[in-house]
Every structure is written in C-alpha cells, then in structure tokens.
Design brief:
The chain is of the alpha/beta class. Helices cover 42% and strands 15% of the residues. Helix 1 (17-28) packs across helix 6 (205-216).
C-alpha cells in the first residue's frame, strides 16, 4: 500500500454520511484533511471524530465557495493531493411533481459541484504530474429507478464526467476514480424513501470509506478506475 501520510485531502459532503466516514478514515490513515459542507456544527463533529481536520463551511453549488475552500487548503497545508467529491442530495418523486428548483438543486449539488471542484484542483495537479480525484456516484448512475429520474440523471452525469475526465488527465499522472455504492444507510434521501428497506442489510458509510482508502493507496503505476459496491443481501 502506498503511504498517504501528510497528503492533503479535501472531502466535500464531510458533515455526515459517506463524506464523514471518508474524512475520518483518511485522517486516521495519515492524510491532512480539509472538511467541507454547509453545516459548521456537523463539520466540527466530523473533525472531533477524525481527531484532526480543518473545517471550511462550503456550499458546493457555488463556484466562489469551492474556490475559497481550495485556497484555504493550499494556504494551510499545501496543494491538494486527494479530492473526494462526496457531497450529494436526493429528492424522490414523480417527474410530474418536480419543480424547477428541485431539479436545479439536485443537478447543481450532485454534478455541477464536481465540475467546479475538479476544475479547481486540476491546474496544480497537472503542474505537479500527480493527484487523485474520487467522485462518489451511485448504482443509480448505472440503472434508472422509478421516482428517482432527476437523481438518476445527476448520477449518470457523474459517471460520464468521471470516465471522460479520467481519460483526459491520465497522461499527466492524475488518477480519477469512480465509486458507485448501492443502498447505503445514510439520511440523504430521507427516511420515507427507505422505509421499505432493511437498514441492517444496507452498506454502511464506512464500506465506501474503505474503498476510498484502497483507491488512494494504490501504487502510482496503476489506478482503480471504478468500484461498484453492493450490499451482500438485498435490503
């Protein structure tokens, strides 16, 4: 395993769920972690759980906020080595009931924010010929589901963007990886959307965090382009 001690890692969506688990595990593996989400209270709790971490309240839908986040990381620790885009939101419901604002919030949070963050870290990574970007998508980025059309559209977009970006920057020594989790025990789609599923059979956020660690500790001559994680038993 490649040692990531001292590497600078920015994790979006770090206030809870998958992002929190990723941030905690990266910190415990030795990375210097910068934590981003909208809630400073949740971020501070993540930092306590991780034992370290620099907290930056961030609305990932806003390019100015992403720029400020990355500037903070660079000034405090140095250039970003690892970017994990884990921020996400889901709204379930029939398309006919969706408002324009629902659509915009989902696409801006799940897809546009990844574009902003990747664009922000790439110049430094290209200059240094190193770096790792991990985008958290979903099984919903592979297969459509009723009442999740807009969410699926955003995650299909993450899959396509990640695959294309990986080909674009691999010549610079930059590794871009995709993780597509199945049903995970988080609150981000709301309790009603998961009421029929058995929580104990779901993935835990730590399962996805373990995959992130596996990816970023690969030796430099190879990279894991995509990981699909499913619960052993259907929830």
């Amino acid at each position: 395993m490649k040692d990531i001690t001292g590497k600078v890692a920015v994790v979006t969506g770090a206030g809870r769920g998958i992002g929190r688990a990723v941030a905690v595990e990266l910190a415990q593996t030795g990375a210097r972690v910068v934590l981003a989400s909208r809630s400073i209270t949740e971020l501070e709790e993540t930092a306590r759980m991780a034992g370290s971490g620099s907290v930056v309240p961030t609305d990932v839908r806003k390019n100015d906020d992403i720029h400020r986040l990355l500037e903070h990381a660079a000034s405090k620790f140095g250039p970003v080595d690892i970017l994990v885009n884990a921020a996400g939101i889901g709204v379930a419901g029939p398309v006919v009931d969706f408002s324009d604002s629902d659509y915009d919030v989902i696409l801006d949070t799940n897809l546009k924010s990844i574009f902003f963050a990747c664009r922000g870290v790439l110049p430094s990574m290209i200059e240094r010929c190193t770096g790792h970007i991990i985008n958290i998508a979903s099984i919903a980025g592979k297969v459509g589901s009723a009442n999740l059309a807009v969410y699926c559209a955003s995650k299909f977009g993450v899959v396509g963007f990640t695959q294309a970006l990986a080909e674009e920057v691999r010549q610079h020594g930059i590794r871009v990886s995709l993780i597509c989790p199945g049903s995970t025990d988080t609150s981000f789609l709301g309790s009603s959307s998961k009421s029929s599923k058995s929580r104990e059979k779901m993935l835990s956020p730590s399962d996805i965090a373990h995959a992130v660690t596996m990816i970023v500790t690969q030796e430099a001559n190879s990279f894991i382009s995509e990981v699909v994680i499913r619960p052993t038993m259907k929830p």
